[in-house]
UniProtKB/TrEMBL annotation:
Alphabetical GO biological process terms: pyridoxal phosphate biosynthetic process; pyridoxine biosynthetic process
Sample GO molecular function, one term: magnesium ion binding
Family: Belongs to the PdxA family.
Protein name: 4-hydroxythreonine-4-phosphate dehydrogenase
Residues reported in the UniProt entry to bind substrate: H140, T141, K278, N287, R296
One GO cellular component term: cytoplasm
Leader sequence segment: none
Main EC class the enzyme belongs to: oxidoreductase
Function per UniProt: Catalyzes the NAD(P)-dependent oxidation of 4-(phosphooxy)-L-threonine (HTP) into 2-amino-3-oxo-4-(phosphooxy)butyric acid which spontaneously decarboxylates to form 3-amino-2-oxopropyl phosphate (AHAP).
Cofactor binding note: Binds 1 divalent metal cation per subunit. Can use ions such as Zn(2+), Mg(2+) or Co(2+).
Catalytic activity: 4-(phosphooxy)-L-threonine + NAD(+) = 3-amino-2-oxopropyl phosphate + CO2 + NADH
Domain of life: Bacteria
Amino acid sequence: MSALSSAPVIAVSSGEPAGVGPEICLRLADCALAARFPARIVVLADRSLLAERAEALHFPGQLRDWQAGLPPQAGTLEVLHQPLAAAATPGRLDPANSRYVLALLERALSGCQSGEFAAMVTAPVHKGVINDAGIPFSGHTEYLAERTATPRVVMMLAGGGLRVALVTTHLPLRDVPAAVTQTAVEETLRILHREMSAKYGIDRPRILVAGLNPHAGEGGYLGHEEIEVIAPVLERLRAEGMTLLGPLPADTMFSRPVLERGDCVLAMYHDQGLTALKYASFGHGINVTLGLPIIRTSVDHGTALELAGSGRADPGSLLVAIEQAIEMVARAAGSRPARA
């Protein structure tokens, strides 16, 4: 236990209170699971919410209020209490709790910025109910970029042997072509190239770059974005020494022979890249926000309202997200984590 007293502290925001976030966070009290983490884990949530969900689902373990100076205790989940605005019922969204959800993110972010926490891991939120509360919100990625005044961040999902980053994220499909500009592609590639080295230890990453249109535009017959937007950026960055393959047809880019030529994929829009990744890794993939001044990872799934309160939600993605955050913290410090 003494080894963990100086271990990095990872903040986990429990997300939408009507979803599965609270109960997958409760699984972190399991001694067998906790032994996987050479770090201290603190869950940001309403303490009463966790207590009620734990009692209803007969989860093992105890809850304890977070205090930085206390040594961790086996079988105990450390909780940084943030009060709900209204009682939460599993599976039933309530816009009244949208500001609570954002308060969890704000507290985790401020702790990372101050050095209290080494990284933040996020359980799922529900974009629709936050917007129903009158709060414009398109996702964690965009929200954290705005709150940290980061001009551009990159959403990347990892799992199933794949790493897939995106030029555009949560946009209606009709808005995508206008958002795929030379500036957007170049800035995304620069961030991806840099962060593959910083966060994954790959010094000269090979990046597979998708086209926007079917068959990567087929020489201009199915669209001109590959010729006018994507290819010129790739040429400039190759001249700087980056290893970039593309623009590639997205329908064959995820075949094994092509994937073996790269360390990660850059897709132009959300479903172009993430459909294949989630097929390969659903439930055990993670989301990483690249380009932020902090380390942030997340589960790769939604709030799963239909499972909330059932005790059947799989915590696998959350566990991998925490493990990856710990590895990134260690890599940033110049060493891989040692098992406590």
